[in-house]
Design brief:
α3 runs antiparallel to α4. The protein has a 7-stranded antiparallel β-sheet. The chain is built from 4 helices and 7 strands, in the order ααβββαββββα. It is α+β, with helices and mostly antiparallel strands.
Amino acid sequence: MPEATPTTTPPRKRWPRFLAIVVVLGLFVYLTRDFWVTTLRSYFIGRTYVAAQEFGRFLPPVDEIEILALGGAVPDDTPDSFPPDLGDRLGTVNRHTIHGPEAEQLASIWRDIDFDRHFAGLCHQPYYALRFRHHGKLILETSVCWKCSTYTVPAGIFGHTYYGFDSKSELGQKLLSTLTQYAPHPQASQ
C-alpha cells in the first residue's frame, strides 16, 4: 500500500489582520484624542502637585545640602557645571556644602516656604541650585529662581518641570539670604 504523503496547508497571511487591528486602534485613539489629552494633562498637573508637596513641605530628612551659586550658560562638556533641568547647562560660580544640624536647619526653612503653582512666573534664571542628600543618597536636585519665583521639581515620566514658591515672603527672603551667606552670588542682592 502506498504511503500517504502529508498535505501541507499554505501558511495563512496574518499581516492583513494585523494591519486591520492597527488601523482600528489608530482610528480609536484619533477619535478619542480629546479624552487622552485631557487625561494626560490632568495626570501631569496632579503629578507635579504631588512632587511639589513631596519635595517641598514634606521633604524627607536630610543631613547634607550642596549649595551651588549658578552663573550663565556654558557648553555641555564644561566641568563643574549644573546639569540642565529645562534649559542650558549653567556654570558654577561658587559652591558650599553644609552637613548635620546646619543642613537640617536650611531644610526646615525650605519646608516652611509656601509652595504653589500660582507663584510661578516664566523666566527661570536661577541664582542657586540645591542638592539635598540623606546618608549620601540624593533626595532632590533643584534650581531656584527668585526673579520668577520658580524651582524645578521632578515630575516622574515627564522629567522636570517648574513649580512656584513665595520668593517675596519673609521665608523666601530668609532662604535667599542663608544661601548667600554660605555661597555668595554676585547677582543675588540685585
